[in-house]
Amino acid sequence: MEDERLVKVTGRGNMEFQDIVEGLWGFLVVFALYLGFVIIARWFKKFFRKSIRK
Q1: Which residue of 2, 30, 33, 48 has the fewest C-beta atoms within 10 A of its own C-beta?
Q2: Long-range contacts made by residues 47-53, C-beta under 8 angstroms, separation at least 24?
Q3: Where do the domains of the chain lie?
Q4: Are 39 and 45 in contact (CB under 8 A)?
């Protein structure tokens, strides 16, 4: 019961959940940037291979 009162008084439960949400958003942003970089790199690689062969 002491733990429940501590959480209600300090509000730490909400902050920890917010930290998790922010961490997930950060992961998604970094993953999206990585995925965009890989897609663009493959597109350039494919484009330049075709242009060199012609």
Answers
A1: 2
A2: none
A3: 2-53
A4: no
The amino acid that residue 41 corresponds to is A
Quote the tokens at residue 54: 């012609």
Whole-angstrom CA distances from 28 to 19, 37, 47 are 14, 14, 28
- Single pTM value for the model: 0.59
What is the token pair recorded at 10? 């300090």
Taking only the tens place, the pLDDT of each residue in 14-53 is: 678 888 899 999 999 999 999 999 999 999 998 888 776 6
- Copy the structure tokens of residue 28: 């998604």
